[in-house]
Amino acid sequence: MSTNKQANRLIHEESPYLLQHAYNPVDWFPWGKEAFAKAKTEDKPIFLSIGYSTCHWCHVMERESFEDGEVADLLNRHFVSIKVDREERPDIDSIYMSVCQAMTGHGGWPLTVFMTPDAKPFYTGTYFPKTDRLGMPGLLTILKRVHTLWTDRRKVLTGSAEKVVEAMGERVTGDTIMDHDELITRAYEVFRMSFDNAYGGFGSSPKFPTPHNLVFLLRYWYVYKDNVALSMAEKTLDAMYRGGIFDHIGFGFSRYSTDNKWLVPHFEKMLYDNALLAMAYLEVYRAVRKEKYAHAAKQVFTYVLRDMTSPEGAFWPAEDADSEGEEGKFYLWTLDEVIKVLGDKDGERFAGLFDITERGNFEGKNIPNRINIQASESDMEFIERCRERLFRYREQRTRPFRDDKVMTSWNGLMIAAMAMGGRILDDARYTEAAEKACRFIMERLVREDGRLMTSWRDGSASIPAYADDYTFLIWGLVELYETTYKPEYLIEALELNDDLLKLFWDGQDGGLFLYGDDAEKLIMRPKEVYDGAMPSANSAAALNFLRLSQLTGSTDLSDLAQRLFDAFNREVSLSPHSHAFFLSALLFFKSKPREVIIAADTETEDVPRMLRIINKSPDPFVSSILYTDKHRELAGVIPSIDEYRAIDGRPTAYICRDFACQQPITDIQEFEKCFTQGADVTG
Predict the structure, then answer these.
(1) What is the average pLDDT across 601-610?
(2) Which of 162, 519, 599, 668 yields a CA-CA distance of 20 to 30 A from 630?
(3) Are 543 and 537 spatial neighbours (Cβ–Cβ below 8 Å)?
């Protein structure tokens, strides 16, 4: 943090990212009417800087430029400077990131935007050093150049801004329309061709986990019986877990790998990555029942529950890559340190198992990994014993900064992951954590009028939720319902889904807008379907609509999913593999998933046995409902549920698919046989 004594306007904000800049000498404004009014009154362009609290290069740019008096003087004299937390305002970030990508061919954070007083951008970039360096213009150079152009050639800049806004307002689509089979096949072919057979993952460096790509491959394998799809997913998940991108001492995954081997991570840890990765490991465990995948998911949950969970049970969003001003310092080891903690014999053995050497594998130090090292079963107890001692030693170091706000969207993802973990691993701890986080969201992030909010910190939640807040929370609620069978979760999911449609649905062209019709109106109102680091709101909504339709029998919801598929077909056809979660929803649709209703007068011991059989099935598409005297509330959202009754007082399973039901089953062995078959694909 800056040593400047005078606080700027950001001191009154809630966002940890904005507060990090509260003592910069730059006269920062938060996004709002005051900043734009000043720009118009004083006839100045706006300097917009967007980042987030655990962003390494955001910290670098702050140290080099925003804490620098020379840069601050130029900004304060000739510009109105606005700071935005991308996690707090994804609507603003989405619009200007799209502009940056269109203008420069790339994007990232910090995001730097120059724009007119009416918020129209004319120049963008990401990180800029303070002074010119290695062919990259420095911020001082750019500020002087923009000021000169604004003073002497205003029409050039404003004309450029008008063209940018006009172009961005036109939805980019191609002429190609692919049918569902072709979209799925094209995506699979790209993954297969770009797969790294040596180290897993796709392409070269940097490598991002992108777990929903792996989930698509797992579901493709299940539907089409293609073992190559399974092997690509397994090899990638194995490689990431063995690599340095996984924290072998304290657990949890870093954001991405800077190399092709998964050795050197960008050390920042994000809640959404760990939620999505946990779900991918659970999904592959469900598919092949290899304990190493269950173990990986459990270690992710151990990290989240220990380090990323608030006392009230909500999940925190991120931990920084930096500590004491150095990226990765908290996570790196020397051989001498390991031997000091473990002793000569154990230290040498542990070092040999985790590629820890005197020379080091990263800038003279070591990132523990097992990329090229096999460990026997007999090694595992030794590894865990040593790991605990090294972990306790590491805890004495200065920890990276942890963002302590609560984000609805990312909590929704971790609620979904924990609920899946509780169900698939049969561990109530994870279910309880999911329920506790869900209660927090419903109690602290829902206004009295029922409007969901996007983030909470220090008792305050002031920004209306976005489409992904709704869709990810609905996802979490559906997983919680199918884990606990408590009707309130399904009812809450349906109510939130109704709100989602009222606030975000495009009645003319279909699809969900990023921000609601009750939110601040920006220069454009985007709809996103690209599945980047996280699934898009529209992709998640498509799968939610189908799952809720399957659970409730509502054809209106399945029709909405079909409208989504149609609305984005041209866009997805341009690059099917960039929309893997969208295609996972298509796979759900094509698989004609099974719905299982278990009706019982009371919950005898056969009921949990039946539920465990469903949960152990490799079928990723099956949905299940439990209906006993404790679940009568379901009649309000599933009109036909009363038709399903226990036969002769025995728990009875009704298995339905494609609008047809099998004969009711009361025999456990017969019921279990139904879940040893794969999915049939027709149509």
Answers:
(1) 87
(2) 668
(3) no
